[in-house]
Protein: Nicotinate phosphoribosyltransferase
Organism: Ramlibacter tataouinensis
Amino acid sequence: MPAFQPVITSLLDNDLYKFTMWQALLHRHPQTVAEYEFVCRNQPDYPLAGLLDEVDAQLDHLCTLRFREDELDYLCRLRFIKPDFVDFLRLFQFQRRFIRAWAEGGQLRIRAAGPQVHVMDFEIHVLATVNELYFRRFDQQRALRTGRERLRAKIETLRQALRAPPRAHPLEIFDFGVRRRFSGAWQREVVATLHGAVPQVFKGTSNVLLAKELGLVPIGTMAHEYLQTFQALGVRLRDFQRAALEDWVQEYRGDLGIALTDVVGMDAFLSDFDLYFAKLFDGLRQDSGDPIEWGEKAIAHYQKLRIDPRTKRLVFSDALDIAKALRIHDAFADRAPTGFGIGTHFTNDVGHTPINIVMKLVSANGQPVAKISDTPGKTLVKDETFLAYLKQVFGVADQA
């Protein structure tokens, strides 16, 4: 038997938005009970069920980890992280009884269920673990050679973009690649290389551990699970987005001001994103649908509210590569500041087909929750009856 090689060695090896959502929910809804489920959206080269024993061993290891004092000190230095949350993290340890993995019909199934503040942070660690275990099956040296060749080409493309005439708002790109990375070591190499080669363009990473160790800006605010949780917190369903945004404003009071728009679709979001929220939030993030159409809607909405779009940031993070980011930037560079969170294209472009895996919130407090994506196939729900009701409440038409 080969020696055990842990995938996760630090609890800081995670997206920033997990910490920011965690803090907000701990402070405002600590009693929430939640359920998260793992899903693979595409067909892997071999069944993920074959990873079950290794996944179990990695989960056992994950549940032994604690935040280290130097990691907590780093979090303390982020002005939006509060001392009592750091004290909570000092005591925090994953509980193995809250997560279970099993095989079912060739599929790998993973479910985390329990108090939300004790299970929500499993998500990214589980996704990074499954990815790395899966890709350990392939020729590592060949993959890394391919990855490095492609990374050099990406850097040359970005350098060419820097030689173009300046626009009103510069190109800014971030690494959002923790959840779908080839490996932790490869993500570190990619981020360090981009930071060293094109610092004028590469502005940070969502990976808090890498931000700490490489001296980068940690990037992130909120994800779908934060807003979805409010579908089950007792507010009128039609008001859940407003309730979530209001709690965020009260928690962060001007920090972390990028709002996610596609929990029930961009149109339904904008109907709730009134002048009050438009002034309080610094911008919006797109994670599904046509990015140009989304950007035009965002700009038109700000203009309708008599807000100059040049004062608000548009962040794009849906299945981006550099070419797509450049096209979007070209469309909006003179009208609004933009930012581009690139994931798989940076951290898992090594010659193998990535596995499209997610681990999403499916219920809170015993009630179903759902995401109605602007991209067909990305809608997530466990209860179709609730999905139909959610669509009716927000006037969302069925997708073709």
